[in-house]
Each structure stands twice: as C-alpha cells, then as structure tokens.
Amino acid sequence: MAETVAERQDIASSRRQLLRGLGVMAMAGFLAACQVVPKSSGPATPPPPPTGDNVGPGLPTDTDRHRVALLVPESGTNADVGTAIANATTMALLDSRTEKVRITTYDTALGAAAAARQAVADGNKLILGPLLSEDVAAVAPIARAAKVPVLSFSNDSSVAGNGVFIMGFVPGQSVERVVAYARSKGHQRFGALVPKSVYGERSTAAFRAAVAAAGGTLVSIESYDRSATALTGAARRLANAGAIDAVLIADSGGNAIRAVPVVKSGGSKQILGTELWNTDAALGGNAAMRGAWFASVSDGLYGQLAAKYRTRYGKAPYRLASLGYDSVLLTVRIARDWKPGTNFPTSRLLAADGFGGIDGIFRFNNRGIAERALEVSEVGAGGFRVIDPAPVKW
Q: pTM, whole model, 2 decimals?
C-alpha cells in the first residue's frame, strides 16, 4: 500500500477504499512477464491490521509486508513531478494486487538527508528515489550505513554504485543506439551538435565511443551555450566542417528545429537525436525534421498507463511517472522471495535476465546503471514511426 507520513494511521482503511473503487489495468501479459502475482477475478482481500511494536512515531512494524520508502519532492519546484511518480507507485500497487509491500512517501523538498534518516528510522528496507542527483548524493551515505539499497529515478550515472542503482534514462545509451543504427544503414562520417552542459558532456563522450565502436569516422563536434546566436553559429560551423553524412543533435526538439535548416545548408545529412525527442510532438510539424531518427524507450505501454492515469487523476502524468510504476513492479517481483523484516536482497537486482516494465525490458549492470532496450523511431508528418523495434529479451 502507499501512504504519506501524515496518513500512516489511516493506511489500512484507505487501502480498502481504493481497492473497492478501482479496476485493474489491462496488462495481464505484461505483468506476467514481470512475475507479478496473478490478478484474481474478485476484489483483493484487505490486509490484516498491522501487529507488533511501533517503530518511530506511530509507524507499526509489519510482520507480513515489506516496508519500502518512496523519496520524492511533494512540495517546491518539482512537486508536480514527484506527485506524478508517487501516484504511479500507487497505481502499480493496485494493479499488481500485492499484499506484501507497504510504501511510505517522504518529501525530499524538505531535505533529502532528513527524509532518508526518517525512512531508515521507520524501518524501511528499500528506498525508491530520490529524483535529483544531488538528493541521491545526500541520501546514499545514510542508506548505505543502514544497509538499505537505493533505487533512484536519476539518470546521472556518476551517483550510481555502492548500493545505489539508477533507473533514469541515461543519455549515452540513446546516443549509442541511434549511432549504431545509422552506421548499419551505411552512414560513415559523423558530426554532432551538443550543448555546453552536463548532458552535453555525457552525450559527447558517448558519441565518440559509439562512432568508434560502430566503425564510423568522427568528423566534428560543435558545442554551444544556450542562446539562439550560439546555436546558429555552431550549426553553421558544422555545416562547413566537410563531408558529413549523419549529424547528432543532443538537445531538445525545439533547439533541433532551429539548428537543422542551418546544418542541412551544407548538404543533405541524416539527422539523429536522443531520448529528449520522445515527448516532443512539435517535431513532426516541421518539414526539415521529417526523416530524422532518434532512440528512446518504447511508448506502447506508457500510452496505456497515461490513459489510466488521466482517468484516475484528471490530468496527464509526467513521462517520468513510468519509473515509479516500474520500480514497484520490480519490488513486487523480488518480494516474492524476500522475507519481511530482513534486508533487501540487493544481488537480485543484478539478475542477468533483467526486468520488464512500462518502458520495456531493462537490467542493471555491475555499476548499478539500468541498461535499457531502446527502439529507433523516425519523425514523420503524422508523428513518430518505429523503424527498428526494441529487443524483447536480453
């Protein structure tokens, strides 16, 4: 069940009301692949009232359920994103009909370290979140000292490892996938436009490695600060850099739209993008962008999740909500063989066959970074078309 700290005393009653009032998402095949407990035809049996001694202020010790903490911003600048993730975790609990997991939400906007200390004091054995890399850095030593693993929603690979696992969409994987696909289609000489930012730096490193691994030739990489003048200047330098037949633009769809006409002024080029384009519907409305390729997680199952979310909460979710949903499915799968009250079996996160989720299959490498199966899509007038599907198994 999902609860906020303020609602701990009413959690059993709220759970029963939610289960009576809501249906289950039509993802039977998907959930089976994730090894979630099968759905029953009737309503789920409400959990028994918690027993045992209290741990912390008003928080009971569960003898039959796993205590899991969700650390997300519930106030402040990123409250809407945190709320969407929290809502998605509630949906996953209901959809999986699990009675083995109890989730308590802690607001990182009030202090990530304080939230982590409270989560540990409350007896949680696994932390889902936090969202921001700086919050992960604050939470990690507290969780590590308590032998509580962290399953973060960050995409910053620098904070992964030593008990911290990240589920976010790492930009380097998208770059590697689309470059490899372009090379398989005969493109040989590569160039790139990248912003002067942490994202740009990581995309640049991934691009260099991907071009070399694919047997291509790296001709030029141009960087720019976030201004229209700088972007245009970098695009013009790249257009005049010599024979290039494929150009990566590691930036938002809006900046790609501004840069592409200038890049193509030096001759026809295949335009490549990253996962940042996945949610940008404006790309298909720009003629210069049509035919561009980008790699990202699949949106097939996410569309179903988003539709159900809108029905339940009255608005569209943030795209990152899928990370909250999938983190619960992963937890439920492992909870089948995890004894309540014991330490979380961290080694299970390194399963070679990985996990399935809303965003497709993924697995964690030995650095704690989620490796994802990505698809390649093409921008068209009517939207995006998948031209190279994501693998369905490792």
A: 0.82
